[in-house]
Amino acid sequence: MKDKVIDKLVSIAGEDWVIQDLDKIEGYLYDETPEPASPKAVEEVVVVKPKDSEEISAVMELANEQGVPVIPRGAGTGLCGAAIPTEPAIILSLERLNDIKDLDEDNLMVTCEAGVPLESLFEAVDETDHLFFPPHPGDEGAQVGGLVVENAGGARAVKYGVMRNYVKGMEVVLPTGEEVQLGGKVLKNNTGYDLMHLLMGSEGTLGIITEVTLRLYPEAKETATLLVPFENRHDAMSAVPEVLKEGHVPLALEYVERKLIEESAEHLGKSWPAEEGEAFLILIITGKNEEEIFDKSETIVEVFTENGALEPLFAQRRKEQESILDIRSNIYTALEEETTDILDVTVPPAEVGNLMDEIEDLAEEYNTNIPVYGHAADGNVHPHIMNVNGEAPEYFEDLKDEIYETALDLGGVITGEHGIGETRIKNLPMALSEEERVLMGKIKEVFDPNGVLNPGKAV
Amino acid sequence: MPEPTYIVLIKQVPDMDEVEFDYEEGRVDRSSAPLEPNPFDLNALEEAVKYKEELGGEVLAISMGPKQAESTLKDAIARGADEGILLHGREFAGSDTWATSLALAHAIETAGSCDIIFAGEKTVDGDTGQVGPEVAEYLDIPHVAFVSDVTKRGEKEIQVESETWGATYLKSMNLPGLITVTKDVNEPRLPSFKDKQRARKAEITTWGIDDISIDPDNLGVTGSPTRVANMEVPPPEERESLILREDPGNSVNQLLEKLDLGREN
Amino acid sequence: MSDVMVFAENNGNKIHPVSYELLGKGKELADKLGGELTAALLSGTSLPAGELIERGADRVYRGTAERLAEPIESSYREVLVQVIEEANPEVILIGATNFGRSLAPRVAMALDTSLTADCTGLDIDEEKNFVQIRPAFSGNILAHIKSRTSPQLATVRYRVFPEAGIEEGKEGEVIDVELSLGGEDTKQVEVLEERRGKKVNLEDAEVVVAAGRGLKKEEDFELIEDLASFFDGKVGASRPLVDDGWIGRAHQVGYSGRRVKPRIYIACGISGQSQHLAGMKDSDMIIAINSDPSAPIFDYADYGLVGDLYEVVPELTRQLKGE
Ligand SMILES: Cc1cc2nc3c(=O)[nH]c(=O)nc-3n(C[C@H](O)[C@H](O)[C@H](O)COP(=O)(O)OP(=O)(O)OC[C@H]3O[C@@H](n4cnc5c(N)ncnc54)[C@H](O)[C@@H]3O)c2cc1C
Ligand SMILES: Cc1cc2nc3c(=O)[nH]c(=O)nc-3n(C[C@H](O)[C@H](O)[C@H](O)COP(=O)(O)OP(=O)(O)OC[C@H]3O[C@@H](n4cnc5c(N)ncnc54)[C@H](O)[C@@H]3O)c2cc1C
Ligand SMILES: Cc1cc2nc3c(=O)[nH]c(=O)nc-3n(C[C@H](O)[C@H](O)[C@H](O)COP(=O)(O)OP(=O)(O)OC[C@H]3O[C@@H](n4cnc5c(N)ncnc54)[C@H](O)[C@@H]3O)c2cc1C
């Protein structure tokens, strides 16, 4: 990195906050993309940790002036290489923008800086005793800004939707350094093009989000977690639309399999509570009181039982519910070491059973094992392509393409929540029309004429 | 031969993570938190149910406490207890561990013969860990505390691992006897939805002082040898946030001066 | 009836150091009560009483019985009750070790008297009441307890009070007690085997010293272990070191590892990503050692040492050991 750039960064952020020593920045080079699928990071980078949007503006101005790429960095939990430097760059970490500024109980909104970890947001909201932030993308370490630009989904999106549904306002530093404020504490807004929604899912290519206003919901007085075992994948998946059809909308409806969930539990020093069954649905039920929880659960259990479920288990103590969600959220971590790539294909909810069957056929065809789990009610699942002898199998790209094709054929998409990042750029042509891609390219140019903000990602 | 009887002592406690502490008033606001079985008592229950699954018999859950504690006993039934007994009445309120143990021991005697009593290592509210051994002493039966594993379940004898004297001891105890368990002893099972539903409708037996033939002078605040004279709720400590940037020798020296670590710990 | 008695817990080889702490505090209480300080030294094989005297005991009641070589509460209960009846103290202090917390309630019930658990503060007030201060509600409150029966028993937490100093040549009386440890009923529990070092229970550790990617080689864990062993603490690690197989899963602290809340957490070469913080940020005290002053861990630390862990950690161990 040019000395001039470093000197300028030091004058913007202060010496302590500009770091080049490889020993100290190792943790900023990669994200959670499985190693075999991940691009290789270049080490010629400098990490800068600005304290506010003013400093961020100054960094962007410098970047444009010097033609140095800037990669915004959240918590690095992304799964498609969107935050990995593939050319010499300034890594701009948002970790110091971690203030929760305003918890507005009258409007049911929270305004926080982009670097606030999801876990801290949960804690702050929990302290109000009556408000709730529903979405739970697996990793509570992810930052709010990262969740917004990735439009994350995760568990607990069944009832109230993905990140996009909560974002009402944001402050953004544009790639050229100007600061803009989009939206606000309003539930309806039709003033011109919705630039805010354009930034959601933009994967750090259209602007640096510095602050977000999110909608909150009243917390359910009671919750319980139903754990429904099935003999096999097919039975479990076919039962999902049956329950949804009956008009039951749980807060979350997750699908997991025995081998994975046991590995994940062991990883945490816990054990998986269900003794029978190979495939499981996890439902979080909410209600005003215990009575309502039991009534709802009873009808849900009936539908499941008619559709081949084994004896469902029921967790009511907070700790037992948390433990189930913890084990569920940890599957990826438990599998990561043997994983070539994790996919997040999404199909119309009623097709998820067919998707599963076809994935099983593919596994047979490739003579491999494809672990699958995911957000069953959203039609969004995570097939894992696994390593062979510790490496990416030679059929990796072929199998991945086939899984993508399968999802597309069923009316779905290749990514429902993790985004395009770096690893899926090559798959864009199968997923988007030429026209769409040209439009996206032009939009990028309008926002970032010098192409300095996270170049080579997303579009 | 009669079927063996296992008694589990279960206290209802507030969910500790949800309890609010008012340090200005020096008060604990228990009403802010949902009530649940003392976590270690779920381990005790699980151990009793395992015994029953291996050797047959009946599991009886006993709790002393307010009327709401019925829900804890119902939870115990959902998790495998056959019956729940609640010791309840204003005379019991405010009992210390001595009086609580006396009452529980009377209830155990009233229930008839008993082969093993299972208790938790301690509760998360009173936090004394005294009730188990005191009950055993009153009933004049042996006990093993801090049991981290049950290695053999027999009709006349139980073998357990117990954490004491800085090591793990494999012990055998003749029955009848009492064990207090740590959270390492097992992972309590999750009840099935069916059992939960059934248990919601279960009848809980309630016993008062007359049912267990206990002298009320030995109970409650007046009957207890100890009393809580007052309570302090220390304010949550702010982190000190002292950053030391000198050479190692000096920084460490300053740190240790601040801390008095050797003793603190 | 104004003496203070300390139960000198031992395993037949060595007197547990909590006993020396109790002597220090016990002396202060005895002085306020106008009584003497006594100690009960009950063991499987005879132990020298000298150190108890040099650390403040005026009288030591010493007794041995073969069955006391093993940690069986009912045996100890029987002989301790015998000694209490002989010595007639007003206050009896027992270390709140696992053994003490299991033995004391049996003794209290046998004597039908009060027992306060796990005290961290003890005093005699103006009316000569014995005031016992103890944490309850999982450590969130401090209760002040008084008793209305006699004798008054308390178990006292280890490493809260300083050990009583040694006064060389101090004189005191040793009373050898003939223990009557009788009948069949004390043989209800038998020790079959002693097993050592079974589990890594990070969650229960009072002190955790954890290493992160700042550690360059697996062998260097020795530095971390040395520091941990000073505190009798446990070794933790951030995820990358566990992933590399340098240390077992059970040592991983964080969101996908163990969540710990020790009295002291020392993070060495750990940057403090939120998944790691999730597992330790509720520790009572956090000390961070990191060469990068911008590391987020410093925001969560009570004390941060900016420096190379290879210099700071050994220096800390050295100074703690008083070298
Ligand atoms: C175990 C595990 C489970 C997961 N489960 C789910 C799940 O269920 N659902 C789901 O949707 N995702 C899931 N994810 C993916 C991940 O958590 C999300 O992609 C998350 O949104 C990324 O946030 P981050 O702060 O880690 O961002 P990073 O990974 O640091 O960055 C991601 C992208 O966002 C950009 N960026 C970050 N912050 C900003 C900002 N303030 N302004 C502009 N650009 C920014 C970066 O440049 C990069 O392009 C999971 C990940 C893991 C490891
Ligand atoms: C702040 C505070 C401090 C206190 N300090 C003391 C003290 O130092 N000494 C003292 O004698 N009393 C003390 N008490 C009173 C004591 O908490 C009560 O007597 C309580 O009912 C039982 O003690 P515990 O919660 O400590 O139970 P523990 O002795 O910790 O319980 C061990 C096991 O006994 C069983 N058990 C305990 N209580 C019940 C019950 N009600 N029903 C069924 N099973 C049960 C359970 O299996 C439990 O796991 C204190 C109370 C308060 C509020
Ligand atoms: C879903 C998920 C779950 C996770 N769960 C966990 C978890 O449970 N536990 C966990 O720890 N992580 C977890 N992580 C990983 C976490 O995000 C971080 O990657 C990890 O904590 C970083 O470990 P570290 O601090 O040791 O390494 P780094 O972030 O690389 O930090 C190393 C630090 O050492 C410092 N250093 C270097 N050399 C020296 C020296 N000589 N002296 C002093 N300091 C030096 C550097 O300045 C740097 O701050 C999880 C991640 C995900 C996505």
The coarse overall form of chain B would be globular
Please state the CA-atom Rg of chain A, rounded to the nearest Å: 22 Å
* Tally of helical segments of chain B: 8
What's the main sheet of chain A like? Answer: 5 strands, antiparallel
Largest binding interface between chains: B-C, 81 and 82 residues
Outline the low-pLDDT stretches of chain A. none
Structural class determined from secondary elements of chain A: alpha+beta
Q: Termini separation of chain B (Å)?
A: 54 Å
CATH architecture of chain B: 3-Layer(aba) Sandwich
Helix content of chain B: 25-40%
Determine the oligomeric state from the structure.
Answer: heterotrimer
The spatial strand order of the largest sheet of chain A comes to 5-6-10-8-9
Q: Helical stretch count of chain A? A: 15
Mean pLDDT value of chain B? 93
Task: Offer a concise description of the structure.
The complex is a heterotrimer of chains A (459), B (265) and C (323). Chain B has 265 residues and is of the alpha/beta class.
Structure report:
The complex is a heterotrimer of chains A (459), B (265) and C (323). Chain A is built from 15 helices and 18 strands. By secondary structure, chain A is α+β, with helices and mostly antiparallel strands. Chain A has four domains: 3-93, Uridine Diphospho-n-acetylenolpyruvylglucosamine Reductase, domain 2; 100-218, Uridine Diphospho-n-acetylenolpyruvylglucosamine Reductase, domain 3; 222-329, Alpha-Beta Plaits (2-Layer Sandwich); 336-435, Alpha-Beta Plaits. In chain A, the strands form five sheets. Chain A has a five-stranded antiparallel beta sheet with strand order 5-6-10-8-9. A four-stranded mixed beta sheet of chain A has the order 1-2-4-3. The longest helix of chain A is centred in the middle third of the chain and has 17 residues, at 290-306. Chain B is α/β, with parallel strands linked by helices and 265 residues long. Chain B has one domain (5-218): HUPs (Rossmann fold, 3-Layer(aba) Sandwich), CATH 3.40.50. Chain B has helices at 39-55, 69-78, 97-111, 131-139, 193-200, 220-223, 248-259, 261-264; strands at residues 5-9, 12-14, 20-22, 27-29, 35-37, 58-64, 83-87, 116-120, 143-153, 157-164, 167-174, 177-181, 205-207, 226-232, 242-244. Chain C folds into two domains: 4-176, 3-Layer(aba) Sandwich (Rossmann fold), CATH 3.40.50; 202-321, 3-Layer(aba) Sandwich (Rossmann fold), CATH 3.40.50.1220. In chain C, the strands form three sheets. In chain C, strands 5-9-4-1-2-3-10 form a seven-stranded parallel beta sheet. A five-stranded parallel beta sheet of chain C has the order 13-12-14-15-16. In chain C, helix 3 (73-87) packs across helix 4 (98-110) and helix 5 packs parallel to helix 8 (309-320). The mean pLDDT of chain C is 93. The chains are: A alpha+beta (459), B alpha/beta (265), C alpha/beta (323). Chains in contact: A-B, A-C, B-C. Chains B and C meet through helix 3, helix 4, strand 9, strand 10 and strand 11 of B and helix 3, helix 4, strand 5, strand 7 and strand 8 of C. The complex binds flavin-adenine dinucleotide (FAD) (3 copies). One flavin-adenine dinucleotide sits between chains C (212-214, 238-240, 252-257, 269-271, 273, 275-276, 279, 289-292, 295, 308-310) and A (23-24, 26-27, 32, 77, 139, 141, 333).
